[in-house]
Amino acid sequence: MDKATPLRILVIEDNPGDFLLIRDYLEEQIDSLDLIHANRYSEAKNILSIKETYFDVILLDLTLPDNFGEQLITDMMSINKGAPLIVLTGFSDVDFGIKSLSLKASDYLVKDDINPVSLFKSIKYNIERKKTNLLLEESEKKYSNLFQLSPQPMWIFDTEKFDFIQVNKAAIDHYGYTEEEFLSMNMTDIVVFNGDEEEIIKKAKDISSSNNVSKGRYTHRKKSGEEILVEIYGSKIQINDKDFESVIAIDVTEKVRMEHKITKAIIKTQEDERFEIGSELHDNVCQILASSQLSLEMLKDNLPPNAEQWFNKSKQFINLALEEIRNISHKLAPAFFEYTTIEDTFHELLNDINANNKYQIDLKIEEEVVNQKIASELQLNLYRILQEQLRNITKYANADHITVELKLEQQELLFNIIDNGIGFNYDEVKKGIGLSNIKRRAELFFGKMEIESAPGQGCKMIIQIPLQSNK
Asked: Nearest-CA neighbor of 59 among 137, 3, 7?
């Protein structure tokens, strides 16, 4: 989608001045624009009630003469035909912004913060996200139909010994074992444990001993050696007064790959925007300030004596602004892909937080890692993980020693970030946005994140990423 893409947009706005400003913004960014204007909710309702009416996006002022606030959003969602709904308001209320998104609005923009580029970006992003969601919904619908209409692998197993008692044809076809082979096997024979065998078996026994429907996600291995990701749904049954469990196994390997692909696309979009902003700051704003320095220098010989101190202060402020902008642009757009190594970039990031020598910092990157060809996308995510965790440490840990380790063990990249701070109870904070972002970034590369911490015992973050899966 670009400026040439034709768009049909409904603007629901009762303030003529605001509407004209929005119209000008849209016309500046969109070459082929079909703009429809409604002054009231009732007018918008009439427009949307026409059967053939279709809009690519709806821009909604939050305060109308006949409706406003949460009720307005709720009512609009009830008559909307699927177009992304972007809320426009004069209030920068973060909580209400979050609330509006929970009411299924696509985005929340404060009028005072809007400019032509930001408005177009929001429209573009929400239209593209709608298309992606429709594709995902269509994929999920097909997946659901296959689940409902096609036989899925099923088996019954002994909850004490985990022996297979019975398997269906779909399981035989999908996993490649004959019925005789299955019945001579144990459930643990098809599970890939990755070093956590005891934990998985204990969890399976705990689930089997309960009366609830059991569910979980596991990696299974077919007879061919192929590994697949399956969602397991099981329920307890009794045969001859003995407890067994009946299981349906759904192969979600492709679904998870699609989710990873979508999430990677979202993160790539975010990174592209960061690079764009960082580059604009570095290449444009810095050049303007540098030109200002030159222009200011030309005045030096013509200054009266009493103006010299103000001249020097102006130069000092411009130098300070240049330095700050360069620092911000480097954080937004790390340049280790072309101009430096991941080790140098890590050094720069660690030096940034240690400008006042508050921390003793140890950076340990094994030579094998330096020589290993790591995909640039993975390098950038390692940088972002370190950036996020350093933010957590400086904000919460009250530490004075930070260790960062990057090493290879059996084709697995181990990334450890350790501090000697006050520590925390992981179960109480693991749903935080920062740690969730780190966990998501690790999982995008088929890795995992572990936290070792307790109050008063510092924190060790362990990121494990298999390199063979990320070639």
From this structure: 7
Three-state DSSP class for residue 22? helix
Helix axes 94-102, 69-79, angle to 10 degrees: 30
Stated length of the chain: 471
Concatenated DSSP letters for 395-463?
A: III--SEEEEEEEEETTEEEEEEEE-S----HHHHTTSHHHHHHHHHHHHTT-EEEEEE-TTS-EEEEE
**372 close to 407: Cβ distance less than 8 angstroms:** no
Domain boundary among 220, 251, 282: 251
Q: Which two tokens stand for residue 132?
A: 């992606």
Residue range of the domain that includes 410: 342-470
pLDDT digits (tens, 9 = 90+) for 242-268: 888 888 898 988 888 887 777 777 777
The rounded radius of gyration (Å) of the Cα atoms in the chain is 29
Q: Is the pLDDT of residue 21 over 90?
A: yes
Residue 172 CA, chain-centre distance (Å), reads 38
326 and 348: one domain? no
Each residue's pLDDT tens digit, 370-381: 777 777 778 888
Say if residue 409 is in the same domain as residue 436: yes
Q: Which two tokens stand for residue 271?
A: 């990174």
